[in-house]
Specification:
Layout (H helix, E strand, L loop, with lengths): L10 E5 L3 H14 L4 E5 L2 H14 L6 E5 L7 H10 L8 E4 L1
Parallel strand pairs: 1-2, 1-3, 3-4
């Protein structure tokens, strides 16, 4: 399968269960003044589902994932393991937050 990552307006997919940290991420991206597309997810399950749906539809994947390691139910460690197991999703660069 050929995957697509749109780098013209890079989409960053940020996953964190903390509303305060989500707001901080939005403010940090806005402060750069660059044209970035920041998407927020509140859980690893939400990110995993989103990525699998995009693969299934042939939709572009995010240019970058920013993952909090400490989340309830499914944490960032498990998400990282699942990403590494998938040949398409393992190509997405990841920044890990602790």
């Amino acid at each position: 399968m050929r995957i697509s990552i749109d780098v013209r307006t890079p989409e960053v997919l940020y996953v964190d269960d903390s509303a305060d940290d989500q707001l901080l991420a939005v403010e940090a991206v806005e402060a750069t003044g660059r044209d970035n597309d920041l998407r927020i997810a509140g859980s690893a399950i939400e990110v995993w589902t989103t990525l699998l749906n995009r693969l299934e539809k042939g939709s572009p994947l995010p240019a970058l994932l920013v993952v909090d390691l400490r989340m309830p139910r499914v944490d960032g460690h498990l998400l990282m393991d699942k990403l590494a197991e998938d040949p398409d999703l393992s190509q997405i660069p990841v920044i890990v937050l602790t």
